[in-house]
Amino acid sequence: MQKKIAISVWTNCGRDLICTGLALQGLFLAPSFGLGADRPKPIRQDKPIATDSNEGSSFRLIQFTGSGESDGSGSISSAFKKAGDSISGFFTSEPRQPQVENDPISLSSMPDEINANVYLSAARMMENSGNFEGAERQYKSCLEKFPKSRLAQISYARLLHRTQRLDESLVIYQMADKDHPKDPTICNDMGLCLARMGRKGEAMAKFHQATLGAPEDPRYRNNLAMVLVDAGRPDEALSQLVYAHGKAKGHFNLGFLLYRKGDHDGAVANFEAALQQDANLTQAADMLQRIQGKQIAGQDPRTAPMPKTNTMFISDQPRQTKSSPVVVPSQSSKIPPAPESEPPRLLPPVR
């Protein structure tokens, strides 16, 4: 009986001890699950936008504050503040660095206006590729902005001349002649245009004016000599050619012009005169052999085919390929010959 009572008491005491232990365990574990721990109070926005950021910045950072902050709230607030300062510093409008004037490497460094050479270069590229319409547009645009550009006027007039628009070409030449009077290049080109139009007297005057502007340039005297030869005035042509090239080469050039015209007797006489002046002038000897060979073959020299070349002038002076500015007439001991007042009667096409 006592044994049963002891077992019952031990059982009841053990149950109470177990319950007590579970209760104590619950008291220790409950805060870790957030059941009994103190929760942080809600953050209040009592203060306005903070004023402790940079004065130069156009952005402000909202400061998160509140009473009864938790232990880690200070570090969190500090981190937010630092991040906000970094972001606001990135977006802050700062004064630009002063730009150096005429900085060649600056993308904003642009010329005030486009130079005439830009239009001329584009036009010449198009003209060389056969795009005459595009080249004409470039020349027109250049003349609209630079109406007195000498190179633009000459280049555009030559384009019109080459495309057989002689009337339009003459208008541009006249405009250039007005803006740049007595320019030898303009006078010469204008003379060629007038010659093709059949206005022989005006062409003669322009060629002569070109020789006055550049008396030592043989090109203009060559053109004048061609007009004189075709007009039946070879003596005047010889005076121009001798002045430009000397006696031997002057006779050779006149002989070639006469040969091209069909006057082979006059050509032979001048080729022989050239060899008398200079026995080493092989060009004159070659032309004599050509004419004499055709005569031996029984071919009428007056019906002999013309040389394929347009010109065969020879000179000690190098040819100039670029348009030159106005040349002041140089002083020379030689007296330049002048054509007579009689206008030429006929002018061959000058190519």
From TrEMBL:
Keywords: Repeat, TPR repeat
Compositional bias annotation for Polar residues: 308-322
Disordered: region residues: 295-351
InterPro entries: TPR-like_helical_dom_sf, TPR_2, TPR_rpt
Source domain of life: Bacteria
Family matches, as Pfam families: TPR_16, TPR_19, TPR_2
Coiled-coil annotated residue ranges, if any: none
Ranges occupied by TPR repeats: 248-281
Biased composition (Pro residues): 336-351
Protein name as it appears in the record: Tetratricopeptide repeat protein
Cross-referenced PROSITE patterns: TPR
Biased composition (Low complexity): 323-335
Organism encoding this protein: Bremerella volcania
